[in-house]
Amino acid sequence: MLPGMLLSRTQLLSFCRRGVMLAVALAVGPGCQVAPAPGPARPPEIERPSPRVEAPPDDRPERLAETDVRVLVVEDAPHVAIHSRRPMSLRHSTGVRRLPAGTWTFRVLEAAAPSRRHHVFVERFRARHRDEAYAEARAWRERGYPAEVFPMGSHYETETGDLLDNRQFWVAVGRFGSESEAVALQRRLEQQEDKWSWTRAEPVGQGQLRVEVIGPGQAHAGRFEGPMELSSEVPMEFARMEGTLIDPRFETARFTGALELDPSSRGALAVFERVGLEAYLAGVLPAEMPPLWPEEALKAQAVAARTEALVNRIDKHYFEGYDFCTREHCRMYGGHAAWHARTSAALRETAGEVLAYGDTLVPAVYSANCGGWTEDNDAVWDAEPHPALRGRPDTPSGSREADSPAMMGVRAWRDHGPDTFCSADEANYRWTEHFTREQLTELLNRTRDIGTIAEIELGDRGVSGRHTVMRVRGSRGSATFERESAIRLALGRLPSALFDFETGQEGGQTVFTFVGAGRGHGVGLCQHGARGRAQAGASYEDILDHYFMNARLERLR
Ligand SMILES: [Zn+2]
Ligand SMILES: [Zn+2]
Question: What's this model's pTM, rounded to 2 decimal places?
Fold first, then answer.
C-alpha cells in the first residue's frame, strides 16, 4: 500500500517565524499550548553550561558512503532472541565475546534508562544564517537566560565540489531535569514575551544495562554489562519468543547492520540497528513503491527517498540519539527481509543522487496520487513556498490554469478534465465517500469541541483544487481548519482534500457526500504519475524534473 502522507500528521513542514530557514517536521512539545500562568519571567536555573555553547560545528562534509543511520527496531522488551548462521561478536563494556552460530537469548537482569534533559528552543537557523543563531543566543544570555546553540545535521559535498548544507542551528534558552520545569518556562515565555517555543528531551549518558546471555542448548555465556553491540558476517534475525513485544513484522526480519542493545526508556531492552544509508533505504523502498513498477519510476522514487531521509534525519529522533523508527512516522522499514532486487537495483543505479535547490537538499516529499494536479507545499503545510515544490498539472501536454480542478471544480474536472499520468490508478484517482451527520460529528469532535455538525463551509483552494480553508459550525461552537493537512486530518478517512461535497437526504438521515480525486497531500512526486510517465517512456531524470521543478539532480560524494 502506498502511504498517503510523507510526514506524520503532527509533523508539518514549517518555517520559523522569522522565515529565515526551512525546518522540517517539527514535533511540538506538549508545553506549547498550555494556558498562561502568572509569575515574573525569571531566568531558569541550569545545572551547568553546555560544552556546545559557541562550539564551532565540525566543518568536514559528511560522506555518503560513511553515513550510517541508527534505527530503533525493538522499543521495549524484557528479552530478545537473536539468531545467526555464523558466529556473532558481542562487544560489551569490558571486551568482546564470540558467540557460536545459533540462537542466543538476551534476558534483562537490570536496566535503567538514562536520565533525560529537557531543552526549550526558541529559534532555528539555516547554516548560512548560523551567525544569527549565535547572536541570538548572546542576546538571550545578556538577559540572563543560559542560552546555547545546538548545531545539528550534516553537510555534504557533491561530486563537482559544491556543498549542500543541510545543517540547522537551534537556539535553546533553558534545559531542565524535568519536563514540568521546561513547560513552566515555555508558559512564561509565551505569556510574558509572546514567544513561541518548543521542547526536546535528550538522554544523558547511557543508563544501566545488565543482561544474561543464554545460547543453544541452554549454554550459559555469562552476564554482561551494556551498552552492547552484536555483529555477524551474515544478516542476523530475531527468533520468535514467548513474551517479547517485538513488532510481528520483525519476527522473520533480518538485519545486515550491527545490533545495539541499550536500556529502553521503560527500563527494559531496546535494540537499534546501525546500518549504512543505502542498506536502510533498501529496507524502506519496497514498502514505498511496488517493486514490479517500471524501473524509471523506481529510480525516481529512490532519489526522492534518499533525499528525504537525509533531510528528515535532523528532526525525527535527533535528540533521542537515533535517526529513524520503523513505523510510518519515519517510514516503514522492514530490514533485510524486505529487500527486493528491483528496488535495490534502482538504488544502485542512482547511487549518491539527491535533489538540490540552491545550496540545500530539497524536502523531496511524495504521495500516492495527486489526482491530476500537484499542490504547492505552502497550501498543505505551514511553510514558506518552496521553489521546487510548486503544484503543476500531471498531464501529457501541460494544461492551462483555467482547466485546473481549482477553477473547474472537482466534479467537472473528474468528468471533463484532461488525460493525466496518474489516472490508471482508478481507486485513488476518483473516489466518493459518504458520511452521516453522526459520523461527521464524531470525527470533527475528536479535535474540537463543537457539538453536532450543522454546516460545513469551504473557502480557498490550492492550485490543485485541494481545500485550504474549512469552517465547521456545530451546536456548541465553530472551528476553522487551515491548510490541506489540517482539513484531511480533521475529516479522518478522506483520501485527499481535493473534493467537492454536497448534503442530501437518505432514509430520513442527512448524508454528506464527498466526491474527490487523488490520495495524499499531492506535493512533490506523484507516485502513480511517475509510473504513468515511466510507462510512456520518461526517464527518471524527466520524472524528477517534472515533479520537483527548479530542483537539480546532484551526486554526493
Ligand atoms: Zn519515527
Ligand atoms: Zn498525479
Answer: 0.85
